Amino acid sequence: MDFENIVIEKDNGLAKVVINRPKKLNALNKATISELHTAFKELNADAEVQVILLTGSGEKAFVAGADISEFAHFSEEEGATLARKGQEILFNFIENLNTPVIALINGFALGGGLELAMACHFRIAAANAKMGLPEVSLGVIPGYGGTQRLSQLIGKGKAMELIMTASMIDAQEAKEYKLVNYVTSSEELHSTAEKLASKIMKNSPVAIGAAISAVNANFKEGVNGYDTEITEFGNCFGTKDFKEGTTAFLEKRKPNFPGA
């Protein structure tokens, strides 16, 4: 896979996707969003990839926001289309991927950058990270799912405050609000993520995908999460992973999941 704005590394079931626009603080433009969609689609289809790590190049930013120059003169209709397409091809796409995606927030994650991190299944932040949704200071609101995911993660009241004040929070505050799972030093960010990924990779990739679907169902309007859980639970019984997992347990050995 050859890309202009991102770099991909793969090793022993782990894929790293690095947004590589350091001069723009890794800001999201249309081309980068399109490349990320293609990359995640291909990695999700790769049976050897069990966990995906997403981060930004350099030490200053995960993603400092969207590329404002691309939409500063948009009409109302163009703005709505921008948000709709972006959510569809990237943000919602990542959230519903059945391969786990972990965001490694290595600096500023603002606006579309924080929205991208929140679309991942969970987040780890370096101690120097700063996060926020400053869109109202530009006369607009978050358009890539930020109003929805932030309130889901940290609660309505605090989400309202952060969005309305356009404030930034540091990594420790983000952990206290449960926006990120862990805070590490910049030097330990990748090793911490890799340790968590290695724990995930010991388990059934089919069951993990089913669990992602079931958890996400709880946050979808008109969907009964319990029903989704029951369906996904039942589906697991028809998989080779279930047969291997239960057989290994009964035989008192470690399972070797085929991922099917």
Structural summary, described in words:
With about 260 residues, the chain is an alpha/beta fold. The chain has helices spanning about 30-45, 75-95, 110-120, 145-155, 155-165, 170-175, 190-200, 205-215, 225-235, 240-250; strands at about 5-10, 15-20, 50-55, 60-65, 100-105, 110, 120-125, 130, 170, 180-185. It folds into two domains: about 5-200, 2-enoyl-CoA Hydratase, Chain A, domain 1, CATH 3.90.226; about 205-250. The protein is built from ten helices and ten strands. Strand 2 (about 15-20), helix 1 and strand 3 (about 50-55) form a beta-alpha-beta unit. It starts with 5 loop residues before the first strand and ends in a 10-residue tail after the last helix.
What is the number of strand segments? Answer: 10
Poorly predicted runs of 5 or more residues: none
CATH topology type of the largest domain: 2-enoyl-CoA Hydratase, Chain A, domain 1
Secondary structure category: alpha/beta
Distance between the termini: 25 Å
Helix content: 40-55%
**Strand share of the residues?**
15-25%
Report the order of strands and helices: EEHEEHEEHEEHHEHEHHHH
| Superfamily (CATH H level) name of the largest domain | 2-enoyl-CoA Hydratase, Chain A, domain 1
Do you know the CATH architecture of the largest domain? Alpha-Beta Complex
As laid out across the biggest beta sheet, the strand order is 1-2-3-5-7-10
Describe the global form. globular
**What is the count of helical runs?**
10
Largest sheet: 6 strands, mixed
Q: Just give the CATH class of the largest domain.
A: Alpha Beta
Overall structural domain count: 2
Chain-averaged pLDDT: 96
